[in-house]
Amino acid sequence: MKGAKDKWLRNDYEKAPKRDIRFTTISDLPVEPLYDPTDLEGFDSEVDLGVPGQYPFTRGIQKTMYRGRLWTMRQFAGFGTAKDTNQRYHFLLQNGLTGLSVAFDFPTLYGRDSDDPMARGEVGKCGVAIDTLTDMETLFDGIPLDKVTTSMTINPPASILLAMYLVVAEKQGVKWDQVGGTIQNDMLKEFIAQKTWIFPPRPHIKIITDILDFCTKYVPKWNTISISGYHIREAGSTAVQELAFTIADGIAYVQAGVEAGLDVDSFAPRLSFFFNAHSDFFEEVVKFRAARRMWAKIMKERFKAKDPRSWMLRFHTQTAGCSLTAQQPMNNIVRTTIQAISAIMGGTQSLHTNSMDETMSLPTEQAVTVALRTQQIIAEESGIPNVIDPLGGSYYIEALTNKMEAEATEYIRKIDEMGGTIAAIENGYQQREISNAAYHYQMQVEQGIKTVVGINKYAMDEPVPIPLLKIPDEVEKDQIERLENIRKTRNNTRCEDALDEVENSAREGKNIMYPILDAVRAYASEGEIVQRLKKVYGEYRDPAYL
Amino acid sequence: MNRKVRILISKPGLDGHDRGAKIVARALRDAGYEVIYTGLHQTPEMIVEAAMQEDVDAIGLSILSGAHNYLFPKVIELLNNEGMEHIVVFGGGIIPDEDIPTLESAGIAKIFTPGASLESIVKFVEEKIVPNAAQRG
Fold first, then answer.
1. Which residues, numbered 153 to 182 in chain A, qualify as contacts with chain B under a Cβ-Cβ cut-off of 8 Å?
2. Can you tell me the ipTM of this complex?
3. What is the Cα–Cα distance from A203 to A209, expressed in whole angstroms?
4. What is the pLDDT of residue A543?
5. How far A72 CA lies from chain B's nearest CA (Å)?
């Protein structure tokens, strides 16, 4: 076969005219015009691919994949007050959503109450405002927590929101061993990319290991971390960097758990991942397959995990927000569809599809309905889910999977040489790699080397703009009133005592989940709990790397 | 002799999405301007303080969280209180078109929305911002 491809390249391909573009992935990995068996020398499908549900899981985590059960359709949603968001949840569930995903506003993400000076203008604007348990109870009103799983995109105060969720379940009469869901709780990628933080890195890691320990004992169906590449990619990284930095973060968490005295097989099965589904279709499919194979090898060989569930990289995917354009917003429906298909062909366990209006605002009901229908049409009409790992065995896919694994492994080796992920972050390594990649891509767009339809090609005078969701300023006022009322009517002695216990436990290095649960039950606010922790752990300042 | 134009690029409020701000800062630096990037989580007070300390001619504000209607005019208000009206304030991020007229009447010189080219931002700085405008009275 080698002879045939070389001959074709020399005699047919090279002489013919080509389009005047660079043939690379969006991440600048060069791709050949054609792949054939000669690109897979040494490839052994039994070793490198295996079968679904078995090491190294290249073809998928579950034995039956989507034949057994479709991916969870889990749309990230939240805005305004808990009541507003509860309404959106019911709307989505009635329209076929199969799992909930909570978007919190910026004050909540940063552990600040709605009346905090830095919350001014931000309350309810890019997610739901949650100050106390009361808001959480309203958020899940009419939603049985033993029947629905919930993912919460929350990082520095994840312990507090988890505690609130568990107390809501408690009040519904649902036992904690029946509660399923995820907290993002991935602080390493915060310092690298998403930038929501409160304390410096090491106290945050300690809180994460507290959560691992607690959930292992009491909430066995809970995914304790959603080790994320999504935000790393959104900040401008390449696909290889997204893969490498995410896996490196995962390595650091496993290391931290083990160093905290936990048995790796006790917590590793409940670590989960979260990737971006970006625009270069095949590069993304390959990234997901490489991720599974890499994690399986790392867990088995590096960490000597024995339980096969510890080797499995289970992941959620979100289509790439950064690829959408404000210009000609309906084009975003097309982008999201292509990206969603790559995630499904890549074997994702759950999926969020972006709405067309999200470059300008949170989604309207109409826009999010189209996004949900996108998943449903792929599921029901396209036939794609009916064959497991349908692109497996493609010469291109397997060659690129190998290449991506090799490139990502090299990054991880570099990070190990620096002393590991945390040391690399403290040196600004990942942050600088990402901002260089982001700048490089922007230059390519400005120079027309990379095309964005509607921006540097096929731009047009804007047609009539689409309707956008507006968050009224009254939300802030309403939320602050509610908070003030709770502070007046709760048992403040009980609350203060509970907060004291949070602070003491933090100071003494004890597991803070237990006192946080008590504080939450006493209707302490998120900000009040965080204030006590700040006294012990300090605050982190942005090093402002350019 | 004219010194180089000095620009402060800042992220007011809690929004942590700094990809755009950092790219704009770098592009302006590459175009020859002196750029100071404050980093995240700046209050309007901190921004105005930094602008004074760094003796800048312009401030670029980036915000994607929807809090621009409060934070941008607040920066202008504080600059005016300090007698620093000569500083040109521009901004960008996720800002719906319908909010732009209000921001402009509050004193924001220009808003760059998603899809704006770096070229257009550099051009704006070239044409609209002069060094040491305060000293020119």
1. none
2. 0.94
3. 10
4. 87
5. 28
Q: Is A196's CB within 8 Å of B16's CB? A: yes
Which helix H or strand E contains A332, and what residues bound it?
Answer: helix A331-345
d(CA A545, CA B14): 17
Contact B19/A at CB under 8 A: yes
Nearest to B14 among A106, A234, A455 (CB): A106
Cα nearest neighbour of A431 on chain B: B19
Mean of pLDDT values over B10-24: 97
Q: Quick count: other Cβ atoms within 10 Å of Cβ A68? A: 11
DSSP assignment of A95-158: TT--SEEEEBPHHHHTT--TTSGGGTTTTTTSSB---SHHHHHHHTTT--TTT--EEEE--TTH
Residue A27 has pLDDT above 70, yes or no: yes
Paired with A150 in beta bridges are A100, A181
Please report the DSSP string for B32-84 in residue order: T-EEEE--S-B-HHHHHHHHHHHT-SEEEEEE-SS-HHHHHHHHHHHHHHTT-
pTM: 0.97
Q: In Å, how far is B105's CA from the nearest CA of chain A? A: 19
Tell me, yes or no, whether B133 lies in a domain.
Answer: no
Mean pLDDT, all residues of chain B: 94
The answer to whether the Cβ–Cβ distance between A438 and B96 falls below 8 Å is no
Write the residue in A106, A435, A442 that is nearest to B65 by C-beta. A106
Span A477-506, pLDDT tens digits: 999 999 999 999 999 999 999 999 999 999
A125/B15 CB distance under 8 A: no
CA-based nearest residue in chain A for residue B19: A235
pLDDT at B130: 87
Q: How many angstroms separate the CA of residue B119 from the nearest CA in chain A?
A: 8
User: Taking 90 as the threshold, does the pLDDT of residue A317 lie above it?
Assistant: yes
Distance from the B137 Cα atom to the nearest Cα atom in chain A, whole angstroms: 34
Q: Is residue B16 part of a domain?
A: yes
Q: Residue A462: which pLDDT band, with cuts at 50, 70 and 90?
A: confident
Q: What is the pLDDT of residue A2?
A: 67
Q: Which of B41, B69, B96 sits opposite A361 (nearest CB)?
A: B96
Residue B118 in domain: yes
Reported as half-sphere exposure (CB side, CA atoms, 13 A), residue A466 has a value of: 22
- Chain B residues in contact with A326 by the CB 8 A cut-off are 113-115
Residue B1 lies in a domain: no
Section A259-263 average pLDDT? 96
Domains of chain A from N-terminus onward: 40-446 (3.20.20.240), 474-537 (no CATH)
Give the residue numbers spanning the domain of B20. Answer: 6-128
Which pLDDT belongs to residue B82? 96
How far apart CA A292 and CA B8 sit, in angstroms, is: 44
B86 touches chain A (CB under 8 A): no
